[in-house]
Specification:
By secondary structure, the chain is mainly alpha-helical. 65% of the residues lie in helices and 9% in strands. It contains eight helices and three strands, in the order H-H-H-H-H-H-H-E-E-H-E. A three-stranded mixed β-sheet has the order 1-2-3, with helices on one face. Strand 1 and strand 2 form a beta hairpin. The N terminus is likely disordered.
Length: 304
């Protein structure tokens, strides 16, 4: 038996989808301009920024598709629907962020060993265009980045690319006025390190959700101890707690009762359990299996 607390997110998802689409179109334009500019100027930093922008386009498209999928209804074949689509998108985006960063580090080291003269004027103007385009996209997604992992992954891609473009601009100015050609490789290396730093936390968080790990905010031992103190409850065991997506946390457990209670009595206790768990720990889906005199393992965690 379970209790669900439904919330309406349709308007928010529609708004997210529109903002993502605008960001996708902006980043396609920026990527094309930077690839052409990087090839003409010979700037690795500009090409690396273009590569990062291309990964942004891919990640934003993934986020956009996930944003659409999550609204599809559940079915007999997909009883949870596509509620995890956005978590999967966040995982893919974080992974690509780190992979792109590693590739940039390899290229930066090669270029540092053999610095090349670069057409700095083109680098400067194209980095300004990228800053403005990505800055606008960042503003579009900022509000939802704190509450939605998928939007956060897209937001981080855009934010890191805007910061990378700022670094490229600084490098362009140093090359133009001081002919410091090696700065192009150093900036590429620093941009890549920043990408890894930003992507790792999101990769770790999304992996925990996909692996059905217990959310860090849920103290399982404490919950079990308090439930064991409820009247007529003898033992709470075989507990599972997992996060389906960013709006749903599930709790299931076997509950041993001290006596053979009726279904009516069980419903009263179940309501108390649901209210306690929801209000105290914000767990909004509870599934309890009642037992009496059943011979099974009474450990809190049971490996199936």
């Amino acid at each position: 038996m379970s209790q669900s607390h439904q919330h309406s997110h349709l308007h928010t998802h529609d708004l997210n989808g529109r903002n993502l689409l605008i960001s996708i179109l902006l980043n396609i334009a920026i990527t094309v301009a930077q690839v052409i500019g990087g090839l003409l100027s010979g700037s690795l930093a500009l090409l690396s920024d273009a590569l990062h922008n291309f990964s942004d386009v891919v990640s934003l498209i993934i986020s956009y598709i996930a944003n659409k999928l999550v609204k599809r209804k559940a079915s007999l074949k997909r009883t949870f629907g596509y509620k995890r689509a956005e978590i999967l998108a966040a995982f893919i985006n974080a992974s690509t962020l780190i992979i792109v960063a590693v590739l940039l580090i390899i290229e930066a080291i090669k270029r540092f060993q053999n610095p090349q003269q670069i057409e700095s004027n083109l680098v400067i103007w194209l980095s300004v265009v990228a800053i403005l385009g990505n800055g606008f996209s960042v503003l579009l997604l900022k509000n939802n980045a704190s509450t939605n992992m998928n939007m956060k992954s897209a937001y981080l891609h855009l934010l890191t690319d805007m910061m990378a473009s700022v670094a490229v601009l600084v490098g362009g100015l140093l090359m133009k006025f001081f002919q410091i050609w090696w700065i192009d490789s150093v900036l590429t290396f620093l941009i890549a390190l920043y990408l890894i730093w930003m992507g790792f936390d999101l990769l770790k968080t999304s992996t925990k959700v996909l692996m059905l790990f217990t959310p860090d905010s849920i103290p399982v031992d404490e919950i079990v101890t308090k439930l064991n103190s409820f009247e007529t409850i003898s033992n709470v065991h075989h507990v599972h707690v997992w996060q389906l997506n960013e709006e749903e946390i599930h709790f299931e457990a076997h509950v041993d009762f001290e006596k053979n209670i009726t279904l009516t009595e069980f419903d009263v206790i179940l309501n108390k359990i649901e209210e306690f768990i929801y209000h105290k720990y914000d767990i909004n889906h509870v599934n309890i299996q009642p037992e009496f005199g059943k011979s099974d393992t009474k450990d809190i965690i049971v490996q199936d």
